[in-house]
Write a structure and sequence with these properties.
Elements: E1 4-11, H1 19-33, E2 37-44, H2 49-62, E3 70-75, E4 85-91, E5 95-104, E6 108-116, E7 122-129, H3 137-153, E8 160-165, H4 173-178, E9 183-184, H5 185-190, E10 214-218, E11 224-231, E12 249-255
Parallel strand pairs: 1-2, 7-8
Antiparallel strand pairs: 1-12, 2-4, 3-4, 5-6, 6-7, 8-10, 9-10, 11-12
Helix pairs in contact: 1-2
């Protein structure tokens, strides 16, 4: 039986750079994306940012805080400059269990939610963010090796989707390693990765380059991609620099 699942990923940029203003377009565009599963990176964990987003989305959709989405979050590690960032998942599918893996190199983390699909199949959905020093490509490659070994060897299931901020362009070592066994949802549809997912105009004047850093990867058991697009990419109507984040997100509907 054919089952369609819509998945998304977005780096939230914590509570930096006009969070109190950009959180409202962020919530609106997450709702508009209508994803079953959303991977979140750079969560501000002390403020329970994932839980706040989940409550806001649920209240707008159903009028109650308890559903349809559930939030899971993990702090990525050490405190840096007074900030504590993490990764998370918002799911409106039943979560059978969840667990995390420390990736090292700045205490990066992968968070796996094992969910039940409407067809009663089960699937792993993973949110992650890799090492952020641009020239330390080998560190990201090591993290990708550790991540894929975990997914291939620990409670392995055929259906797996990995989404997040890989911190490198499509020709990077970590991306190349993941693509040895997984394929990219966006590239499946368009024959290439997005031209850029970072930065948005929220960071106007602070970056002189643009690159693709964000991906949705799928295991071979995912049959095909019905649609893939960039989302969370619309500025506020009154301010064309007020984007939901410093990254845009990715959205994909897959057939499993």
């Amino acid at each position: 039986m054919q089952t369609l699942v819509t998945v998304a990923t977005i780096n939230l940029h914590g509570r930096k750079d006009r969070w109190l203003e950009r959180r409202h377009p962020l919530v609106a565009q997450l709702i508009e994306g209508d994803a079953d599963l959303i991977a979140l990176q750079e969560l501000n964990t002390p403020s329970r940012q994932a839980a706040w987003l989940c409550r806001q989305i649920n209240m707008r959709l159903s009028g109650v805080e308890s559903g349809p989405y559930r939030a899971i979050a993990r702090r990525s590690g050490s405190l840096f400059s007074g900030a504590s960032l993490g990764v998370g998942v918002l799911s409106r599918l039943p979560v059978l269990y969840h667990e995390s893996l420390k990736l090292g190199n700045g205490s990066r983390m992968a968070l796996r939610a094992h969910v039940e699909l409407p067809s009663h199949q089960t699937m792993d959905f993973v949110s992650t963010q890799l090492h952020d020093v641009p020239y330390e490509r080998e560190a990201r490659q090591e993290q990708a090796l550790r991540l894929m070994a975990w997914l291939h060897g620990h409670k392995r299931v055929p259906l797996q989707i990995v989404a997040g901020d890989m911190q490198e362009a499509p020709d990077g070592l970590a991306v190349a390693h993941i693509k040895q066994s997984f394929r990219s949802a966006y590239a499946d549809v368009y024959g290439r990765e997005p031209l850029a997912t970072y930065p948005t105009a929220l960071m106007a004047g602070t970056a002189d380059f643009a690159t693709c850093r964000d991906y949705i990867f799928m295991s071979p058991a995912v049959r095909r991609v019905r649609a893939a697009s960039i989302f969370c990419d619309v500025p506020a109507s009154e301010d064309n620099t007020l984007y939901p984040s410093d990254h845009v997100g990715l959205l994909a509907t897959v057939e499993v």
